[in-house]
Amino acid sequence: MTNPTLNSATQAFIQQLQPVFAGDIDGSDAARQVFSTDNSIYQFIPQVVIYPKHIQDLQSIMRLASQDEFKSLVITPRGGGTGTNGQSLTNGIVVDLSRHMNKILDIDPVRRTATVQAGVVKDQLNVELKKHGLFFAPELSTSNRATIGGMINTDASGQGSCRYGKTHHHVLALKTVLINAEILDSKPLNLQEFSQGIADKSEFQKKLYQQLLEIVENNQELIEQSFPKLNRSLTGYDLPALYDEQTFNINNILCGSEGTLGFIAEATVSVLPIPKHRALINIGYDNFQNALKDAKALMTLDPLSIETVDSKVLNLAKNDIVWQKVSPYFLEPEAPYVIQGINLVEIDAETPEALEALKQKFIQHLQQDESVKRLSLTLANGNQQIIDVYSMRKRSVGLLGNVTGEKRPQPFVEDTAVPPEHLADYIAEFRALLDGQGLAYGMFGHVDAGVLHVRPLLDMKDPESAKMVQLISDKIVELTHKYGGVIWGEHGKGLRSEYAPVFFGKSYPLIQKVKGLFDPNNQLNPGKISTPDTQPQASLIKLLEVPLRGESDKQIAKNDWETFGTTMHCNGNGACFNFDLDDPMCPSYKVTRDRIHSPKGRATLVKEWLRRENQGEQTQAFDREVYDALHGCLSCKSCTGQCPVKVDIPDSKARFLEKFHQRNSRSLRDYLISNLERFMPMMANFASLYNFVQKQKLVQSLQRDLLKVVDIPLFHPQANADLSKLGAILLKQDCSNLPQASDQAVILVQDAFTRYFDTPVFLDSIELLKKLGVQVYILPYFPNGKPLHVHGFIQEFEELRAKSSVLLSKAAASGLALVGIDPAMTLVYRQEYQAQYQQPVAAASFKVLMLQEWLVAYLQNYPVQNLKSVTAQTYYLAGHCTERTQVPASTAQWQNVFKAFDLKLETLALGCCGMAGTYGHEAEHRELSQQIYSQSWQEKQKQHGAQFLVTGYSCRTQIKRIEQETAKHPVQVLNAMLSF
User: Fold this and answer.
1) What is the domain partition of the chain in residue ranges?
2) Is the pLDDT of residue 49 over 50?
3) Which terminal residue of the chain, N or C, has fewer Cβ atoms less than 10 Å from its own Cβ?
């Protein structure tokens, strides 16, 4: 691999590594940009990204790096890449262990242990452990994308740490690849058997163990004085935990070392029984300070954990997908009171009776104690309800990033820890500091452990913000020191390591000795936590020494920054890295495991592309890399609904394509697919001929080779059905025959695909409404424009939108509801039709409802009549990705509609079907499309067969293509239940 932008040493290193390396090596401009950020304020561009396939690859990297000619190179490990302090950022070589080294190697439910590779995601492990009634603690808000290796490297902790401790409390054994390429197999050693325990180790490792033992034996008093006594202790080179006069545990200095001592490759961890009976007590307060004060008293009642959230996070959650499930637990108090803070108090017990007794103990205390003003009290019982409530707390980091305006919450003093008894006083001073600087902020955290996440709002494009970062950081270092705490209670040190000597105190030279023993040439993630005593000229990286994201962001043209909207505010929280295949978030990332093909990766590339555009630095090569990244996007819009910041990659993709094709020609396929809607009514007149031609092998071969199109849908035999025979009334083009308003009439808005390719669903919808006593009016057919938008024909889309909006507005003026059938097409009227492009748009005077939205309201006033008597059976709903993530209430609405028909409908946890409109028909995406389908849909479709109901036209098309089966739409089941 040759890349002229890489330095010569890195190029030589890669050239020598390739012949002995089984994994992947990516020195592309795109990969380097994507790996230049995490969830911090920094942007540090690496030389190259390496993806080892196994531990031997890690040894090959280290063996080569330790040679004299490469001792100037620096190497940094990376897992989930969601760190808030730049722990895995480097201008050297990134080694990503998450792509390939993500296997669960062993689970022993009897001994309660699990052995995993470093890239295994915490929730991935817990899914398998749950089968045995076990789980891996501690709990993290990023548990669906945080890797075990990353947790070990930062000694992560989170909710429940007072009970479960930090990661190092659960580590039994590690395999670590050292800088000399040796594998260090480490586990706790009994000091009485110390010599015997290291007898089979290499001479280097024997010397390492002996020198570490000397350090702690000879400096016990100094170490005791230097390290604060905290639940969130000063981990990373944790000398107090290395030695306790009975046991020597080298794992406790490797945990929290952030890749500065070696690369964690595998870990054996202890796992715990899942709590048998749990409840969550949700308490609302009149002010946030009272929530903090109350937590101290509540801790005496022995809860499992206490989590706190301030009003800023709570109010942002109300506009998020999570609120659908959470709202019943946070009821609005009577005026004039407003909830300004909440505590989530989790309790657990071995038996239901013990849990009930503990619950009553808490409730009695809350009723009798009047030391603070409490405004609300609700209970969440059982695992699912608790998970629902915690889903909001877990999204706190992302939610704070979804505030409006250019000032956004920034993580640089956001995981401070002090003794819990001092937390309220400490936070009062913290808030006074921020208030004194005129800064807004959001707060949430683990009050039981004395940890609070505080994110001041700053516009990092403003040069003054960097000065504020330094000022606030310096002040908070003083403040935490005053209260006997640390500034790194949870998320590692990373690029805040400048303050390490302050907190390690007189023990800092001992920390340097440790670094020198493991990494004498300062190659492993240098400048973080400690410099080696073998390199006196080495220094820790200063807080503002590494480039900030804001420095790059401010080079983007203001108009582009505003036009590309939420994508510009991606904060790197990594919610799009969700490992769960049964979650719709970003199917292209799940199937490729390539960070470039994630919303975060694409957002990073779009920003850099816009920056280069504005600075005149664009190159054809980088243009193509950004195009390839966005071309892989399915435009399913799951990111828009599920990202806490609402990053909208499909919209940014459309805007990018418009700009890109101003200097790059389009394919003929783009023009044909994007304008297909326009021609369909005319083509339908020759449906039989069209279908005949499309079935010819030669035509299919030509389309695949010349147009890169496969599996083109055929017109349905009923495409030209006379709708008036079903009792529907066709509205005129000028809507001159609009009816009077009526709650028993509706206007159906046709979409091209349901109308012409999947006509039975359209006809069944009309029949169903008619049987329910509804007069159906049909709006004249017009192109929706979604294909135009997806392919970046923004000007054409705007012209069509303007014309279509006139017709929709006229129809809406009748007072009748406008209803669409296909969810993806219908939601275009509520999203893309409302967006700002070149021409400003006025607020829409129409709203097109999805069918279930209208039905659920209608059936409340007009109960179902004339139901057929059928054998009871359960149906299973497979909702369209866009529908599920943009309108999360839609699944419950379908369930309520089915309930009105005396039918049971269960919703399925599903990823994406892989079709996504035109994506699955594009030849280059055919294989990926089928892989996406197989990840989540295929097994459930086969399991439920005819009871598997599918709302999306694209999804039904995918099933027909792969399974050769015709999936039913929910309306088809409902229609069959009624007789005239």
Assistant:
1) 104-273, 278-402, 403-491, 555-665, 680-976
2) yes
3) C
CATH of domain 104-273: 3.30.465.10
Q: Using an 8 Å Cβ cutoff, are 226 and 237 in contact?
A: no
- Are 754 and 826 in contact by the 8 Å Cβ rule? The answer is no
Tens digits of residue pLDDT in 148-180? 999 999 999 887 777 888 899 999 999 999 999
Distances from the Cα of 637 to the Cα of 142, 790, 831, angstroms:
21, 11, 11
Task: Give ∠ CA 852-854-858 in degrees, rounded to 5.
Answer: 110
pTM beyond 0.85: the answer is yes
> Are the C-beta atoms of residues 818 and 749 closer than 8 Å to each other?
yes
Calpha distance 944→188 (Å, rounded): 50
Instruction: Name the fold adopted by 403-491.
Output: Alpha-Beta Plaits (3.30.70)
The Cα 589–Cα 577 span in angstroms is 7
Sign of CA dihedral 908, 911, 917, 921: negative
**3-class secondary-structure state, position 574:** coil
Q: Are strands 24-26 and 48-51 parallel, antiparallel or unpaired?
A: antiparallel
Per-residue pLDDT tens over the stretch 606-640: 999 999 999 999 889 999 999 999 999 999 999 99
What is the distance between the alpha carbons of residues 914 and 921, in angstroms, rounded to a whole number? 10
Cβ-contact 177, 58 below 8 angstroms: yes
pLDDT score, position 1: 43
Residue 232: pLDDT over 80 = no
Under CATH, which number does the domain 278-402 receive?
3.30.70.2190
What's the rounded Cα separation, in Å, for the pair 811 and 781? 13
**357 versus 229: which is more confidently predicted?**
357
Q: How many helices (H) and strands (E) does the chain have?
A: 43, 29
Rounded-to-integer distance, Cα 320 and Cα 934, Å? 29
Same fold, 278-402 and 403-491: yes
Which residues does 909 contact at the CB level (< 8 Å), separation at least 6? Answer: 582, 583
Tell me the C-alpha distance between 761 and 970, whole Å.
Answer: 9
Cβ atoms within 10 Å of 691's Cβ, excluding its own: 15
Give the DSSP per-residue string, 924-974: GGHHHHHHHHHHHHHHHHHHHGGGEEE--HHHHHHHHHHH---PBPHHHHH
pLDDT digits (tens, 9 = 90+) for 904-957: 999 999 999 999 999 999 999 999 999 999 999 999 999 999 999 999 999 999
pLDDT digits (tens, 9 = 90+) for 102-120: 999 999 999 999 999 999 9
pLDDT tens track for 782-818: 999 999 999 999 999 999 999 999 999 999 999 999 9
Angle at which helices 676-684 and 687-694 pack, to 10 degrees? 110
> What is the distance between the alpha carbons of residues 176 and 179, in angstroms, rounded to a whole number?
10
Burial, 944: exposed, middle or buried (Cβ in 10 Å; 0-12, 13-18, 19+)? middle
**H or E stretch covering 127:** helix 122-130
Which pairs count as long-range contacts for 943-947, CB under 8 Å and 24+ apart, including other chains?
A: 944/876, 944/908, 947/873, 947/874, 947/875, 947/876
- Which is it for the CA torsion 734, 739, 740, 743, positive or negative? negative
Instruction: Give the pLDDT confidence of 318-327 residue by residue, as tens digits.
Output: 777 777 888 8
Residue 286 DSSP one-character state: S
The structure tokens listed for 750 are 């046709």
